[in-house]
Amino acid sequence: MKKFGKVLSLVFAIAGTAGVAAHLNHAVGPAKVLASTAQLQPLKPPADGKINVAFVISDGADVMDIVGPWEVFNDTMLTSSGKPWHGSDGDDMVMPFNTYTVSDSQQPTNAGGLTVIPNYTFDKAPKPQVIVIPAQGGRTPAQKAWLLANSAEADITMSVCTGASMLAGYGMLAGQTATTHHLFWGQMQKQYPAVHFLSGTRFVDHGKIATAGGVTSGIDLALHVVERYYGREVAESAADFTEYRSELWKNPDYDQVRAVAAAK
User: pLDDT of 49-95, one tens digit each?
Assistant: First the structure.
């Protein structure tokens, strides 16, 4: 977990408290969290073309935060008639998601020792319907401007692990419940008091903004997003293809959901 500490230390040094919009005193309990996840409206796929999924990356981005959701979206398959794809369907396969990375430049980016060359710069990237924010340290004006503009029109923006610090730092989580990597609950609550961080759940989804816990939690949230677009059976087919056996994407609460106390 040393790498997350380095990323988060850099995030706090860059972000400071500028992104904190207000101090809110209300608390949201477990019932509210369940409601915000279970009673969401389905997402509507475009009538033509694929669903663009943009991964915002910078140096220090966590590999699993990227490749976990990336694999889920790319392993989501339909038949030409729109039904869940199974092995017996053979070549009758439609891939509904288009995944790509976006950053300030197309210079190679160090993601935990894995070199990633961004597909697009912020000024050239296709318009996304889904935005994924992995844990990372980079913060730039171009990144902020792109994220705020595009998240307003996207179907959903989701963070993984301490990627929630980017959303919080840019004021996108103020007044909402959220989650992040368990080692940073208290530190994040202290740094962003306008956000109500929760323990005991793999992800929190408020419709257009969602946050996942650490590392593999991004897989659960991505499967949940697939379900919101195409239903339970398609998401189950994607999970089966990846041989992902956890059921927490269907109900993300693995313990009693509690409000997090700020670190002292």
Answer: 999 999 999 999 999 999 999 999 999 999 999 999 999 999 999 99
**What is the token pair recorded at 253?**
């609460």
Strands (E), 130-263: 130-133, 156-159, 177-178, 196-201, 203-205, 209-212, 253-259
Helix, strand, coil share of the chain (percent; to 5): 35, 20, 45
Which has the closest alpha carbon to 209: 181, 246, 168, 250? 168
* Average pLDDT value over all residues in the chain: 89
Within 8 A by CB and 6+ apart from 32, the residues are 177
Domains of the chain: 2-10+26-259 (3.40.50.880)
Helix, strand or coil, per DSSP, at residue 226:
helix
Closest by Cα among 189, 149, 156 to 170: 149
Q: Are 78 and 233 in contact (CB under 8 A)?
A: no
